[in-house]
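User: I'm new to structure prediction. If I give you an amino acid sequence, what do you actually give back? Let's try with this one:
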Amino acid sequence: MSGLPRRFSLLVAVISGLLLLSSVVFAAGTGKIKGRVTDKESGEPIPGASVLIVGTTQGAMTDPDGSYLINLVPTETYVLRVTSVSYNTVEISDVVVSTDKTTEINIQMEKSVTDIGKVIKVTADRDKIDKYEFTGTVRMTREAIKTMPVTNVDKLLQQTAGVVTTSQGEVIIRGGRAGEVAYIVDGVNIGDPLGGYGPTTLGLSLTSGSIQEISIIKDGFDPEYGNALSGIIKITTQTGSAERTNLYLQYLTDDLGNATLNKYSNNYDNLAFSIGGPDPIFKSRVLPALGLNFLEDKEVTYYLYAEMTKTGTHNSYDKYSSDITAMRYGKFNFLGFDIPERQLNDYTINANLMMKPLNNMKAIFSYKNSVNHSTDFN
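Assistant: Good question. You get back a string of structure tokens that encode the predicted 3D arrangement of the chain. For your 378 residues, that looks like this:
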């Protein structure tokens, strides 16, 4: 029996180490899917039908009245697969789940006669106007954020009516004060209960490339947000796909390689990188090495996003200096590499490990950090 306490101690050590570097969030950034499954011809409910979210282990069985409910669904676009004895399988694509919102999908099934294995594919209807949803709630999905010419959260917020960001990075909603806004990132309130603004910079410094969804609630919020007086900003960051590994690389520059074309260049360079997908190490190697296999058939994913931005300004010191008077900027050490700096330098990293030990439970170990270096001159 001596091996069991030792393994337990190792597991506690691993989890404790993760907790020191991360925030653990249960059911953060999730919504619900509900609806009713009926016979297409008679309109009668179909009890016992299976409603499954393709690519996950989440799903539900319909009640005697044909209704179903799937809780704690991460914000994403899904495909629903509905199966029942004596009926053709139905797949519904483009099912969008938003944070704290219930997506209603009603399904009609046709009886199968001879076409065994026939699958009927349909597309989910566009969301109808929800009369119970507050008019003061604004949501920005991943698809919408991609089309906006902005790179971080405070610039995204400026696209919303009634929201103002100051030069100090404070956010004001509907004429209130900066300290009256609650900031929630992946289910964790990062505001300072003593009224300071320091922790809020973590959420505002997140880059748009790492964000899955933003919800801005300007009025009518629930009592659970008792520390918010003028508004709430809820940010859900991206997580890895359980089906495949996705790799993303982006490089932006205003250096056109020509002195004439670079007349208005600010010596700007931006490099963004992300990778995410099914976990290749924690579930298959770390836990088995400890003699633990409770996540063997469970969903575990990872996601890593890193971005680096370096630039001067339109009136950069470099434009008014010679080789003799040139300012020597320092270097930033990252993973053992010395990266030359410029007048303005931003470094951002966002990493998370998500696991679903149960169908109605999700845990996220996350790490977020942002470093800003700048050199002033007069």
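You can read the tokens as a compact description of the fold. Here is one thing that stands out. Residues 137-237 form a domain with the Ferric Hydroxamate Uptake Protein; Chain A, domain 1 fold (CATH 2.170.130.10).
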